[in-house]
């Protein structure tokens, strides 16, 4: 066991701890959700993160994208993220992939789950197809203002993102607020871990809707 | 004979309501339901859910968890016992 994980020792059985420390994941997007996911996944001590993003850091990213500061503006996100995450000298391997998610994206062969950290439904639908083709689970989330929704899509799921969110894309750029993004990404990590540990409470054929104004979390059955 | 309509996100905040239950006779369509909601909420839903007579981009209408886009759009049938979920999904990240 990694020496810095002592304070989460009691939460998991020995087998579960081993499973977490062996996990490899793909994070699609190194923006608000992706940087938060990477930070959390590193802290819980997983084995490897493939971090995908083709873009460079802009000033408008700094309100929520936790791996970057002003000095990173203009740098490729995956490069700046790598440097930030490696500065903590923890053991999770970070593999930067400076590329856009397209139908042709090659999904790493050794991953256990894909994290949706995208900011539009069009690319999410492509990511969903890639996950299905590679027989992998996808943990989706979208966040806007004080609201978010999550969905776990499994290769065998009857309901896809496309089934639910067809027509969901608006033309405007959504407002995003850092604490809400952090909460959403943290939920994705928790839900992914529950699924991968085969916990019966994992999301199944439902939308988890988070309303941070009314402090309400709903499970919308599908 | 009743159907449950549930509001989430901004719909819930704007309307200060988490939903509404309607008694129906036989089947109604999504268009009928929007019209009933409009009567109760001052035209709010046709403004939010419709754009030039079609389902507006950025709003989701689910009947028992199925997006009506994949059923029969605004002509999709709603029957006794159905649950209709209305919300603007969050796209950002």
CATH architecture descriptor name of chain B: Roll
**Number of DSSP strand runs of chain A:** 8
Query: Globular, elongated, flat, extended or rod-shaped: what is the shape of chain A?
Result: globular
Mean pLDDT level of chain B: 94
> Which sequence of SSEs, written as H and E, runs from N to C of chain A?
HEHEHEEHEEHHEE
Low-confidence stretches of chain A are none
| Biggest β-sheet description of chain A | 8 strands, mixed
Q: What Rg of chain A, in angstroms, do the CA atoms define?
A: 17 Å
Q: In the CATH scheme, what's the topology name of chain B?
A: Ubiquitin-like (UB roll)
CATH class division of chain B: Alpha Beta
Helix/strand order of chain B, N-terminal first: EHEEHHEEEEEE
| Sheet with the most strands, sense and barrel status of chain B | 5 strands, mixed
Oligomeric grouping of the chains: heterodimer
Name the chain pair whose interface involves the most residues.
Answer: A-B, 43 and 25 residues
Low-confidence stretches of chain B: none
Please give the alpha-carbon distance between the first and last residues of chain B.
41 Å
Tally of individual helices of chain B: 3
Strand content of chain A: 15-25%
By CATH, the superfamily of chain B comes out as Beta-grasp domain
First-last Cα distance of chain A: 39 Å
The percentage helix of chain B is 25-40%
Structure description:
- The complex is a heterodimer of chains A (222) and B (93).
- Chain A has 222 residues and is of the alpha/beta class.
- Chain A contains six helices and eight strands, in the order H-E-H-E-H-E-E-H-E-E-H-H-E-E.
- The longest helix of chain A is centred in the last third of the chain and has 19 residues, at 178-196.
- The N and C termini of chain A lie far apart (39 Å).
- By secondary structure, chain B is α+β, with helices and mostly antiparallel strands.
- Chain B has one domain: Beta-grasp domain (Ubiquitin-like (UB roll), Roll), CATH 3.10.20.30.
- Chain B is built from three helices and nine strands.
- In chain B, the strands form three sheets. Chain B has a five-stranded mixed beta sheet with strand order 2-1-9-6-7. A two-stranded antiparallel sheet of chain B has the order 3-8.
- Chain B is globular and about 40 Å long.
- The A-B interface holds A 29, 31-34, 116-121, 141-145, 147-149, 159, 163-171, 173-176, 181, 205, 209, 211, 213-214, 218, 220-222 and B 6, 8-10, 12-13, 55, 57-60, 62, 65-67, 69-70, 85, 87-93.
């Amino acid at each position: 066991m990694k020496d810095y994980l002592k304070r989460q020792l009691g939460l998991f059985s020995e087998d579960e701890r081993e499973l977490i420390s062996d996990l490899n994941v793909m994070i699609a997007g190194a923006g608000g959700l992706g940087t938060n996911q990477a930070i959390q996944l590193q802290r819980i001590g997983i084995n490897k993160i493939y971090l995908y993003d083709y873009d460079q850091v802009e000033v408008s990213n700094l309100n929520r994208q936790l791996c970057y500061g002003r000095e990173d503006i203009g740098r490729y996100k995956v490069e700046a993220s790598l440097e930030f995450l490696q500065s903590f000298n923890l053991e999770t391997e970070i593999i930067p992939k400076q590329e856009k998610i397209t139908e042709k994206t090659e999904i790493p062969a050794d991953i256990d789950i894909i994290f949706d950290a995208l900011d539009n439904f069009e690319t999410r639908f492509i990511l969903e197809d890639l996950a299905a083709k590679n027989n992998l689970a996808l943990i989706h989330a979208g966040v806007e203002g004080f609201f978010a929704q999550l969905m776990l899509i499994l290769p065998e799921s009857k309901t896809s993102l496309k089934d639910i969110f067809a027509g969901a894309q608006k033309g405007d750029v959504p407002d995003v607020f850092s604490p809400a993004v952090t909460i959403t990404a943290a939920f994705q990590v928790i839900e992914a871990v529950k699924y991968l540990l085969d916990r019966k409470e994992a999301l199944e054929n439902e939308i988890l809707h988070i309303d941070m104004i009314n402090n309400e979390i709903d499970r919308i059955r599908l | 004979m009743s159907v449950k309509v549930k509001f989430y996100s901004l719909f819930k905040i704007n309307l200060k309501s988490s939903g509404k239950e309607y008694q129906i006779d036989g089947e109604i369509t999504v268009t009928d339901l929007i019209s009933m909601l409009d009567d109760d909420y001052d035209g709010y839903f046709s403004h939010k859910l419709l754009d030039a007579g079609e389902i507006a981009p950025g709003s989701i209408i689910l009947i028992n968890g199925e997006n009506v886009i994949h059923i029969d759009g605004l002509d999709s049938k709603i029957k006794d016992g159905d649950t209709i979920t209305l919300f603007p999904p969050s796209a950002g990240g």
